[in-house]
Amino acid sequence: xxxxxxxxxxxxxxxxxxxxxxxxxxxxxxxxxxxxxxxxxxxxxxxxxxxxxxxxxxxxxxxxxxxxxxxxxxxxxxxxxxxxxxxxxxxxxxxxxxxxxxxxxxxxxxxxxxxxxxxxxxxxxxxxxxxxxxxxxxxxxxxxxxxxxxxxxxxxxxxxxxxxxxxxxxxxxxxxxxxxxxxxxxxxxxxxxxxxxxxxxxxxxxxxxxxxxxxxxxxxxxxxxxxxxxxxxxxxxxxxxxxxxxxxxxxxxxxxxxxxxxxxxxxxxxxxxxxxxxx
Length: 279
Prior knowledge:
This protein is α/β, with parallel strands linked by helices. The protein has two domains: 2-109, no CATH class; 119-277, no CATH class. Helices cover 55% and strands 16% of the residues. Strands 1, 3, 5, 7, 8, 10 and 11 form a seven-stranded parallel sheet that branches. The protein starts with a helix and ends with a helix. Residues 1-9 and 15-27 have low confidence and may be disordered.
């Protein structure tokens, strides 16, 4: 119940801030002002919300104290039983003052503003980059599927589909390729080979995405009789959406990468053994 009252107080603060209400909204339990506010020593109130001015607390506040664009003075006779939030001002608390909940102060000076702006720009850049990569991955998968005439959406004859085994194969192959790439990079002259390995891994990823997306899209009845590129687009969209899911998305992308690499390695192995058996 107490947490609900605290939350209600902060919501009330946000509503009042947005509507710029006048200071007449005050009663015996809630003090809401846009002028300097002083809570006397023996007075008990529920909330104190002051916008654009200073506040001084000498008495008891049961729920919360919120001061925006003003300073807060908490004297030694004060007893604040809820959280204290000050935005754009300073807090001065005398020794002996009782505050049982956290005190939060956000002083929006130039350094703080710059930090907020920088953080916002980094977040925006990260979001735009992720969006661009997602769209690019979607387009490449669909275009590659169309270019290969959807041959990669089905398995070759004689290929045994065991997802667990394929993922393990991809995992082991990725470790081997990583170790080989590190060794070749150290030798410097092997860097072109490393580039070829990276290109090969990317091609295997696209091939795996085409296979998974095509089969995933076919699972929906609404896609029955639809063009193959549309089925591929639907499946790829679901995969890209899952990849962008926080935390789970990274693990999902890793599993798809291992599956794709394992699928490519298994296909190459099948093709090699089939050729050797031919007279």
